[in-house]
Amino acid sequence: MSRIAYVNGQYLPHESAGIHIEDRGFQFSDGVYEVCEVRAGRLIDARLHLDRLDRSLRELRIAPPMARGALLVVLNETVRRNRVREGLVYLQVTRGIARRDHGFPAEGTPASVIVTARALNPTANEAKAAKGVKVISVPDNRWDRVDIKTVGLLPNVLAKQQAREAGAFEAWFIDADGHVTEGASTNAWILTADGALVTRPAETGILRGITRTVLMEVAAAEGLKVEERPFTIAEALRAREAFVTSASSVVLPVIAIDGQPIGNGHPGLVALKLRSRFHDFAEAGV
Ligand code: PDD
After folding, report:
1. How far is CA 224 from CA 91, 197, 269, in A?
2. By the 8 A CB rule, do 91 and 32 touch?
3. Rounded distance from Cα 26 to ligand 1 centre (Å)
4. What is the pLDDT of residues 104-136, one digit of tens each?
5. Are residues 140 and 104 part of one domain?
6. How many domains does the chain have?
7. 0.70 exceeded by the pTM?
8. Nearest residue (CA) to ligand 1, atom 20
9. Are residues 182 and 115 in the same domain?
10. Are residues 45 and 108 in the same domain?
11. Helix (H) or strand (E) holding 234
12. Whose CA is nearest to atom 9 of ligand 1?
């Protein structure tokens, strides 16, 4: 089946969909994005993702390209036209097309909007979670506004590739104090020996993941204590469990960090429980 992409008001064949060479996203990474899970053909937690998109746009002073209702129509229509039941929808908004100049373009330059959707294989994802994933640690060399979900992802790209070449799924960034910030495309969690879930506070240094936010509710319902505080790789290596969260992976147990096993070296039962309960708490189809 041929794929369809939404680009600035048009639904186009994916293979020939393009953006102008002077789009500021292309030339300056001057744009933001969101990735939403699609489940049974419905967007998961779209409201929270669009709240975060609004915040990212505000922080970069990019005017919202369209009303939220219209954006939801485009997201849903892109999912529908691609017949995605289980998968992801990707939304990117940039500061638009203008002659290359670092300063902002003229007032009224329309933002560029791109939406794509693709199917994921749920069986393969479940198998991945059942097996667990490996993580490596790398120095956090990103700018200090990683709370904004910008398309400027070069450190994340290099870290992810380094992980891949080391036979791992994810790289955890380590800040100057030796604390784990987050993964290249996921938030990082541990379950301590005394049963507390620990994840870094989201005020600075990480992206406030939507999966992370919703998982706090799941944890509360499961009677788990959540501590929002920094942790080190040494503490993670002593932890009972570790896992990562994101819209594309939901909850994935981590079984090794830098080649050292976590817990018994198998996916943690708490992580798997949280994964299995996630969609009881996520909002479907807004
Ligand atoms: N990644 N941290 C980073 C750096 C991320 O890129 C992401 C999301 C997360 C988790 O956020 P959420 O739970 O809202 O997906 C944390 C997306 C999925 C991506 O880049 O593909």
Report:
1. 33, 7, 13
2. no
3. 20
4. 999 999 999 999 999 999 999 999 999 999 999
5. no
6. 2
7. yes
8. 185
9. no
10. yes
11. helix 233-238
12. 186
